[in-house]
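User: My collaborator sent over this chain with a note saying "see what the structure looks like." That's all I know about it. Can you take a look?
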Amino acid sequence: MKWRDLPKGYASRPEVFRTLSPHEVLQVVENAPLEEVKAAYRRLVKIYHPDRSHEFLQGSNAEVLKIINEAYEVLVKRAAPAPPGSES
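Assistant: Without extra context I'll predict from the sequence alone. Here is the result:
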């Protein structure tokens, strides 16, 4: 499921975000470079940060922001090179 496929008004519902993959949450393609992932993350944080949202959305936006942070961490860990000497 992609964001564009979601009905209007679903963008702030955490239960919908939980069904998406990390790439879909951040709206990037699967082989996106790290710079693109970081830019997408910053853009979404600006939108969903509780300090920047309306009062009636703050609770759901905080949950969505947690999901965005988790997706970002997953993608950054995947993109990070393994440290020298580690076995993978």
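A starting point for your reply to your collaborator: The chain has four helices and no strands.
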